[in-house]
Structures are given as C-alpha cells and as structure tokens.
C-alpha cells in the first residue's frame, strides 16, 4: 500500500490520494459498450448469444433457464447451504419489510386534500455477477426487497460459467426468492437486453445490481437514453475504507481490507490510520494474510493500487471520509458511534471490532448493493423504496377551490399562461 501523510499534502495531492481507478472513464471502454448495446438493440437474442460466446467462451442455444432447473438446484443444494440462504433471507426480508411506506394524506388548505400513494415497479431487472465469483448474496439483496415491494416481474440475468451452466447456488437462491425468470447472460450485453428487451428477455423499467466496468458503463448509458430504464445507482468495482487507531486489532483491519480486494483487480481499499505505528502493524498483517488467499492474484493487484493515509486528528479523519464517500466504511476505533453524526457520505457503516464488512455483504439484513466511485455523495444504497415509485393525488371541494383558486389564478397570470388561469376562473364562475 502506498502511504500518504495527510498533513504533508496540499489540496491537489489530497485529491490524488483519494482518486479512483480510471477504468470507468476510459473512452475505448465506453465506445465498446456503445457498440455492444447497439448490436443487442437491433439483434436481440442472437446478439446476446453471440457476445456470450465471445466474452464467456460458451455457445448456448437459449438464454432462459427453465423453472424446473431452479427447483432442482434448490432440492439438491446441501442442507448447510440451504440453511445459510434461509437465515440470510429471513434477516434481509425482516429489515426491508420494516421499510414499507404508508400512504400520506394532508389537507393543505381547508377543502384541499393531497395524497401520496406508493406503487411497486412493474418489471425490475436484477443483475447478479457470476464471473470470477458467483454472487449468491447479490441475488438475495435484490430479489428479496423486490418481492417485498410487490414488483410483479423480477428478471435475473447472470453470466454462465465456462461449462455453459449458471452456478447451481445462484439458481437455488433464485428459486427460494421466487424470481420470475433467470437468463444465462452477463456483461454489457445483459444490461442492454434488460434495457431494450429481446425476444426472450423482457424490457425492464429499472435495472439493479453491481458489476464490472462494462456493466457499470452499460447501466449508465442505458439510463441516459430517452425513455430508457432507470438504474439503482452508479455502481462499479467494490471499495472499502477502514479507519483504525491504536485500539484496532490489525488482524481484523487487514481482513476487512482484503475482503474487498479479493473482489476485483479494480477494487480499491483505503486505510486511514491515526499514526505510522498503527499503519505498519496493519501492513504486516496484510502481507501475512494475503499469502494464503485462494484469490491472491486478484487481491495483490487491487492492493497494489490501495492507499494507507496517516491522519492524526478527528477533523482530518472526517474530512477524508466525506471527501472520498466510500461504499463501505469500517470504523475500528474506540467509541465509533461518536463519529457517525459527522459522516455525511458513505454507503454503509460498520461499527467496532465485531462488525466485519462481510456481515453486511451477506446476512445482517442491510442491503449490500451500494454506491461506489463517490456516488455516496448523492445516492443511497438499494432499499425497499428503490423498487417503489409514488403517485400524488389531489381532490378539491367547491369551497376548497374558492379558497385556493385566486392564488392559482394570480400565479398563472404572472407566468402568462392564460389557459391555466381560465381552468380555475371558469369553474369559479360556474353556477353548477
């Protein structure tokens, strides 16, 4: 990890220390994704199958996974894995059910009633990564709140393995979470299929889920098109920031940093340590743990671009957190709750030594689909409300319009919109 001392840096150096990988802004990548999306828009299933053969190295005859295959995957899943899915499902469902919104009704002026009512999305596209690691947890994090919200069509896309099959644990989780359909495709071509629809894959109203740079770019481009789908948030490679002082256990800190580094070579981890001694102890533990990781090669690439920042004051720690806006923020300090009110920008916060980032990834109940690349400055992670939209309703009595009408007439007159003014005045003049 490259080390920076916050007090020794000027504004430009600090920005550089907190910069993200440039992969998502690569013009060549963006143009490649545009080409893929155009091909899928016009070519449908055939284009998706062709790109699956090109990028995943497998030739498929169809994209849809039969429902019977999902059922079989669940029945044949080992009992310990079923139990793990069931516990995670229970916690995730419980936390998201608590978020179900209520109708709102307010009488803003006597005789003027305004309401707001929630409506679930009709069709949601759920992207589940399955390339270097089959993310069963992502399926749970997307499919469960979609079901709780009442989304009618819950469409899962996930890439096949080199054998042409979708990981059976993903299929089993899809069955347990009652998804509508599962399709064996990933990458930008899968996002394009969800955005435009193909012969077999329905066009979706909103697309959810994390992914690599191709997936993140495709989501962003799809959302920019007139009439295109909404997306949950800008989400790219995973990232984590750990704040550690002399009270932190370096073993725990290193394990949290490496749990993100093993995701992707573009994953970014930052450790904010309160002094150089703390930093050296953490680095030594990272070197020890990384040597035995099965995904060592991926983690080493990610760690090579990671940063260790020395910040010796609370004000500097808070400044670093809010400027970087991490996807995951782990506070390994004494009395971590005292820092929370000052944190404005973070996807999800983990407090204290017994709260590893992994619990949020899998089973505590909070959602692990979180904003990356600084998007936590403006976006929340996925919640139940991510699958809901709101409709406003109003009803006025004759007396209500008599009270409010003159205000509306005057505002319409100020804007020079005479038909708007008359829509009120003609009613007020009416004897019926």
Return residue spans where pLDDT drops below 50 for at least 5 consecutive residues.
none
CATH architecture label of the largest domain: 3-Layer(aba) Sandwich
Oligomer: single chain
Question: Cα-atom Rg, whole angstroms?
Answer: 25 Å
Shape call: globular
In short:
The chain is α/β, with parallel strands linked by helices and 432 residues long. It has helices at 11-17, 27-56, 67-76, 79-97, 136-149, 168-176, 187-196, 213-224, 250-261, 276-290, 296-304, 314-324, 357-362, 398-415, 418-429, and strands at 2-5, 64-65, 104-109, 112-120, 123-127, 153-158, 181-184, 206-208, 230-231, 239-244, 268-273, 307-310, 328-332, 348-351, 388-396. Helix content is 45%, strand content 17%.
């Amino acid at each position: 990890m490259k080390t920076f001392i916050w007090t020794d840096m000027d504004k430009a150096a600090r920005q550089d220390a907190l910069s993200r990988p440039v992969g998502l802004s690569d013009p060549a990548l963006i143009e490649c994704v545009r080409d893929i999306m155009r091909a899928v828009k016009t070519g449908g299933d055939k284009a998706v199958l062709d790109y699956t053969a090109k990028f995943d190295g497998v030739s498929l005859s169809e994209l849809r996974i039969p429902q019977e295959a999902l059922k079989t995957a669940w029945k044949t899943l080992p009992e310990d894995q079923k139990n793990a899915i069931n516990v995670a499902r229970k916690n995730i469902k419980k936390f998201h059910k608590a978020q179900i919104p209520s109708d709102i009704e307010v009488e803003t002026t006597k005789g003027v009633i305004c309401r707001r009512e929630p409506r679930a999305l009709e069709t949601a596209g759920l992207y589940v990564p399955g390339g270097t690691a089959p993310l069963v947890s992502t399926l749970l994090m997307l499919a469960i709140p979609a079901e709780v919200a009442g989304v009618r069509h819950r469409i899962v896309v996930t890439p096949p393995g080199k054998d042409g099959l979708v990981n059976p644990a993903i299929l089993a989780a899809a069955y347990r979470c009652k998804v509508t359909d599962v399709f064996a495709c990933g990458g930008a071509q899968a996002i394009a299929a969800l955005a435009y629809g193909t012969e077999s894959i329905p066009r979706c109203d909103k697309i959810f889920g994390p992914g690599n740079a191709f997936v993140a770019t495709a989501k962003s481009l799809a959302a920019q098109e007139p009439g295109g789908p909404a997306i949950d948030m800008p989400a790219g490679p995973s990232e984590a920031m750990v704040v550690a002082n002399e009270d932190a256990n370096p073993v725990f800190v290193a394990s949290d940093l490496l749990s993100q580094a093993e995701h992707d070579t573009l994953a970014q981890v930052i450790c904010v340590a309160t002094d150089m001694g703390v930093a050296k102890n953490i680095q030594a533990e990272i070197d020890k743990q990384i040597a035995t990781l099965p995904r060592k090669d991926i983690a080493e690439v990610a760690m090579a671009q990671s940063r260790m920042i020395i910040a010796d004051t609370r004000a500097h720690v808070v400044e670093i957190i809010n400027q970087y806006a991490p996807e995951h923020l782990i506070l390994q300090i004494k009395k971590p709750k005292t820092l929370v009110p000052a944190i404005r920008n973070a996807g999800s916060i983990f407090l204290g030594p017994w709260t590893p980032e992994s619990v949020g990834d899998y089973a505590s109940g909070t959602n692990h689909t979180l904003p990356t690349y600084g998007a936590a400055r403006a976006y929340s992670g996925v919640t139940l409300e991510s699958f809901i939209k709101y409709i406003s309703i109003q009803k006025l009595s004759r007396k209500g319009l008599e009270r409010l009408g003159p205000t509306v007439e005057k505002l319409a007159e100020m804007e020079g919109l005479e038909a708007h003014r008359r829509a009120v005045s003609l009613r007020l003049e009416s004897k019926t």
